[in-house]
Amino acid sequence: MDAVAIPIPIQEEDMSDYPKIHLSFPVRDLERSVSFYKKLFGEDPVKTHPGYVKFLPSIAPLNLALYSDGKAAGDGANHFGIEVRDHETVLRHLVRIRATGLVTREEMDCDCCYGNQDKFWVEDPDGREWEIYVLNRDLDEPGGRDDESCCAELDRS
Q: Quick one: pLDDT at residue 113?
């Protein structure tokens, strides 16, 4: 007998929560990293175990796991980012994150990575940079930042 496909209705709440990107980082000091990501996302982790935490932030479709390895020598990633819908959302998160005491670096109307963006940066305790940004428009050129982290490693030949 052949299997019969039974349609499963898709709920609207399912559409907004999935899919998610999963990232898993080793960290030197789990307590410091949890404090940082709570400030960045504005939410507590959803799962906490000795040496491990997981965040499912509402700001982005992200599943971020952190585990303590005591060294976190770097993962080779240039940076991570959360693209938001508009400039007002960038500013809302900037104000929220500044209020937590995290140091931010703003770049409004910035040409970078073949796009004009409004954004700001924060750095986690292990030196990973996160940006929250909006893409204002695409560009044909990579941008004017040769000495900064965003486009520094692009092959400009």
A: 75
Q: Is 86 helix (H, G, I), strand (E, B) or coil?
A: coil
CA angle 29, 147, 113 (to 5 degrees): 90
Banded pLDDT at 16 (limits 50, 70, 90): very low
* 3-state SS, residue 134: strand
Distance, CA of 87 to chain centre: 17
Find the DSSP H helices in 6-131: 12-17, 30-41, 87-99
For 143, which DSSP code?
B
pLDDT tens for each residue of 47-91: 999 999 999 999 899 989 998 887 766 666 778 889 999 999 999
Cα distances (Å, whole numbers) of residue 46 to 69, 126, 128, 146: 20, 21, 22, 39
pTM: 0.71
- What digits encode the pLDDT tens for the residues 97-135? 999 999 999 999 999 878 899 999 999 999 999 999 999
> If we measure between CA atoms, which residue out of 154, 153, 147, 143 comes closest to residue 110?
143
